[in-house]
Design brief:
This protein is α+β, with helices and mostly antiparallel strands and 207 residues long. The protein is built from five helices and eight strands; from the N terminus they run αααββββαβββαβ.
């Protein structure tokens, strides 16, 4: 009779919470700013205030977490590595007035071509989500020539580059948020393919 062989016990793998992973990437100064922002949102936490911001911030940290920098309590800049430099690719702005503003590279045409969004009627900013046409996302193209452009967005522009300003409600539908996060994934495809390129691009700063 052959002896019974007991298979080795596999060590349990702890799942890392995306938001905790985001926090772990912050400098002490930026962490202090983020904690102050979250504390300010906590007064309306029962209606979900701050939850959507956390999901967006966690996703951006995963896609462009080489460096994350807080500008005050309501602005976060997300960078990718660019050789010995870094390049700002996303900006998240939550002035705590009911809307969150997300700035991404301009992937609007690609999103329409991929069947994520429908093209908005000329002169309008509301783009319907394919298959869920009752859900729309307010998207505005911005360039270095745009009026009233915040200083914290300008490093994403220049040399013909454009960005998207996406407006989200501080408390909103999950389906709308999922579509916005797909746009972020689409933007990340662009630099993941060229990560090995050594050229320094406009807007890059030393790490």
């Amino acid at each position: 009779m052959k002896p019974t062989v007991t298979p080795p016990v596999q060590p349990s793998v702890a799942l890392v919470d995306p938001y905790e992973s985001f926090l772990s990437r912050l400098s002490r100064k930026s962490l202090t700013s983020v904690e102050a922002h979250v504390e300010a949102c906590s007064g309306n936490a029962e209606i979900g205030f701050g939850r959507q911001w956390k999901r967006v911030a966690s996703t951006l940290a995963k896609l462009a977490g080489h460096a994350i920098e807080a500008s005050g309590q309501h602005v976060l800049r997300f960078y990718i590595a660019d050789g010995k430099y870094r390049q700002q690719m996303f900006t998240l702005d939550d002035p705590r007035k009911g809307s969150i503003y997300l700035y991404t590279p301009d992937v609007l045409d690609a999103a329409v071509a991929r069947g994520i969004l429908l093209a908005a009627p000329e002169g309008e900013k509301a783009h319907a989500v394919v298959g869920q046409e009752h859900i729309t996302i307010e998207i505005e193209r911005v360039t270095s020539e745009s009026k009233d452009l915040p200083e914290f967005v300008k490093p994403m522009l220049g040399w013909g580059r454009r960005a998207l300003k996406i407006t989200l409600g501080a408390v909103g539908e999950d389906d709308r948020l999922q579509a916005v996060l797909r746009l972020c994934d689409l933007a990340a495809e662009g630099w993941s393919k060229s990560a090995a390129e050594p050229a320094v691009r406009m807007g890059s700063v030393p790490t």
